[in-house]
Amino acid sequence: MKLSQIKTKEVRDSVRKSRYKKFVPAFIVLFLIIVVSVCFYSYYAYQKEKKNSAKRTQQKIENEYKKTKKEVSTEKTSLKPWYTYHGIAHALGGLNGKHYLNSIDGFYSNYQKGYRIFEMDLQLTSDNILVGRHTWGNNLSDPLSKNGYPASYREFKNTKLCGRYKPTSFLDMLNAMERYKDFYLMTDSKSTDTVNVKKEFSVLVQTAKKAGKTEYLDRVIVQVYNESMYYTIKSIYPFKHFVYTTYKQRDVAFYKMVKFCKKNGIEGVTSPQNDINDYRMEILAKEGIYGFTHTVNNSYFTKEYMKLGVYGIYSDFMTPSEINKNYLDVYTPKFASRYMKTVIPALAK
What we know:
alpha/beta; 9-stranded mixed β-sheet; elongated
């Protein structure tokens, strides 16, 4: 029956409402289907964009690597004394805001930016392979994860850092040293115990020998923490370059350490930021030893430490050109700086 055929208004309204009620469940179901569809599509689009973003980042890294490889193959490279440089790439250099990666992807990117000294944190896997890792943690993908046990080499290599960056072994870096002839690799061991030090550096040397790459050990800068560690490593292999790293030493101990460095030809001393002062940097300068600090990621603090006498810094994200500019700003007299900026460009016109 049509509603128009019902003469009584109350009855007509009642029939209309009952008919509408029949369609309410269908409308609700339709609405839920639309909401679920929109949510599903949004999630799918997000995951697709996330995957594409990861691919673009990986492609960018690979392109940088190819570009760097091409540049190196076409240019003549010369190995300069390592203390020529004011910047050291910390943990092989940061990448896309991530640090402590110890990844060859970071190396490729920061080599292209001009770095020629790369520090690498070294750890032994459970099957005694030397790899780049700051700490062993429960999450291998997270380079800052802690409280874990050494993974196997296979587990280590099969787990991308932060989901995208290549885990890197010491052998990988020896292979890079073969391709790129003008950079140094600085070791950062995590143990000062004599037994562990002997084991770690024995593996390091054996890795180079098995690969037929012992010549590249001459471009390894060994970081030591005490005299005992120095003598232990020297007994394993006659490395040419050493850096002495200090932590919270009193001035008397610092002066004794400087004398030890001078006696044994140790070229640099690295101190944490809290230990930097002009008195200590002056002692180093008088003995012809280069002073470094870590880890600095902005120009303001770089200049402040350099004003105290620091020669160079370890950094995650600053470029070598930025670090060099800070050094020149601190050590170039103002009149010379004005001369370089105004007179020399004018003469070139």
